[in-house]
Structure of EAL domain-containing protein:
Amino acid sequence: RAKRGGRGQALYFELEMERELRERRELENALRYTLERGGLSLAFQPIVSARSGEVVSCEALLRWEDPVVGSVPPSLFVPVAEEAGLIVPIGAWVLREACRRAMEEGAGIDIAVNLSPLQFAAPGLVDTVRAALAETGLPPERLILEITESVLIQDFGSTSTTLSELSALGVRIALDDFGTGYSSLSYLRQYRFDRIKIDRSFVAEIGRGGESVAIISAVIILARSLDMEVTAEGVESEAQAEMLRLMGCDSLQGYYFGRPASAFPQALAEAGREAARGGLAPMRALSQ
Ligand code: C2E
Ligand code: MG
Ligand code: MG
Ligand code: MG
């Protein structure tokens, strides 16, 4: 009897795996089709200065709105693109498109672009970044490349070479989702980053009585002593924004300040800037 149950379970898993494989293949086909038709787009989310409330930069986020499949989130299709070997061409497009939009529409607003670990490890990344800057004319100091710890797990030698070649171009490097990996601290010792982005799971815990405020404060002090900027991700409330500002965070990103949108964020007009100096609260009205 136990044996039969085991076989039943094995069959169940087999069917389950088959279903997942089929769904993945369907998603991959739909993605290839979308790519041919130029169906991917970018959304931009503002990142504001914690001190002045001004929009200082924004993050480019991939969007896939499919007429048949509907809207597919990047958490779903980026892994598919990685497995299908499509992330390198997609990533190159994201880089060029983000730089172009920042150059044409975003006077004074820096642009952050996410890099997949596969894109980072593939040959030619540095050339791709250099070409995107050259073709669009965007000054390198306006481009920030966001990488996650999964990039750093790879071979130390080639990772540091790539990172220093990128820095030599004049672009900045941000460590994304900080605190979610296994050895966030040791990476800070091994590599130099210009910015760290505190993962939104820490921000979400502010005011809920956990340890996240202590951890965020410590990270900010550490970052300061290593001469890095700190951005907090996932800021959803005025209370969180105020707390992060008091703790000395440099910049803030989250739904409270603005959701990702297809329009490139605009710098505030002088009137808005004045309002923003009075505190962070008016920003919400201005950004929506
Ligand atoms: P990420 O780089 O950490 O991007 C931030 C994510 O947090 C975005 O999700 C953004 O919409 C979301 N977010 C921003 N503010 C808030 C908030 O206040 N509350 C909550 N709950 N979420 C907030 P999104 O756009 O779904 O992207 C998810 C991930 O997909 C990104 O995480 C990034 O890892 C990846 N991704 C997006 N675009 C690209 C890309 O062009 N290339 C690569 N390789 N990965 C990308
Ligand atoms: Mg990011
Ligand atoms: Mg992040
Ligand atoms: Mg993330």
In short: The radius of gyration is 21 Å. Strands lie at 40-49, 55-66, 70-72, 110-114, 143-147, 172-178, 195-198, 229-232, 251-253. The chain has 13 helices and nine strands. Residues 177 surround magnesium ion (ligand 4) (CB under 6 Å).
